[in-house]
Amino acid sequence: MVHSQTLRVRLARQVGAVAALCCLTLQVPLAQEAVRTGGLARLKSGNERFVRNTSASVSLGTPTREALAKPQNPFAMVLSCSDSRVPPEYIFSVGLGDLLVIRSAGEVLDKSVTASLEYGARHLNIPLLVVMGHESCDAVQTAIDSTTVEGPNLQYLVKAIRAGTNRSASEKKELRGAILANVEQVINDAMTGSQILRRGVSEGTLQIVGAYYEVATGRVMFSEPVLAPATTARK
Ligand SMILES: [Zn+2]
Question: 34 C-alpha vs ligand 1 centroid, how far in Å?
Fold first, then answer.
């Protein structure tokens, strides 16, 4: 259930592991914790400006581009749907070089998407990953409508989303519930399928949160940080 700014990604099947890794999280050095918290706070404040229609203009000019012509240093990764209404840089009011953005319909993972996340976490040392679903997601709607899609690639995508949304009759009927279930499943799959991401979370170098974007209001709601590696993957 969504309450104001907080969205809880359920990890009911991971209760034991959550408890174990909560202890590990307490051991994270304070400086590192501050870095992680700062990134999420920056996304929240940027989204607040977006919601209030007070986003500052972003410099896209030559001086900015020239300054960025060196190794990149984004402060967060965002895995979101490829939907045209969900551009993370606008939603979080950030500029060039700020976010590593990976997008696929329904934010579904495949090897390339997972590898992109691993690259961000391992090689760019990005301390924050946001997995963001959104209101009125056509990809999830297609999956819960049991619509027949053409060709093996679209079938792969829809099958992947259905795996996360088939857990209860109520979730199948209610689009937002299905979208949240899909976000949860993507996070679980990322943790299950990537040793690099799993290790980042357990060692405290990577924080993962789920998010839900309301298209009409522009507001993003965030889950609690994910503290546990998942043990279930899409079938
Ligand atoms: Zn979508």
Answer: 32
- In tens, the pLDDT along 127-179 reads 999 999 999 999 999 998 877 899 999 999 999 998 888 765 555 558 998 99
- Residue 105 CA to ligand 1 center (angstroms) comes to 6
Report how far ligand 1's centroid is from the alpha carbon of 70 (Å). 33
Q: Ligand 1 centroid to 64 CA: how many Å?
A: 31
- With b for 16 or more beta-carbon neighbours within 10 A and e for fewer, the 168-186 pattern comes to eeebbeebbbbbbbbbbbb
pTM of the model: 0.82
Q: How far is the CA of 104 from the centre of ligand 1 (A)?
A: 8
Q: Which of 190, 198, 182, 216 is nearest to 86 (CA)?
A: 216
pLDDT digits (tens, 9 = 90+) for 41-97: 999 999 999 999 998 888 899 999 999 998 899 999 999 999 999 999 999 999 999
Domains and CATH numbers, the chain: 2-53+72-217 (3.40.1050.10)
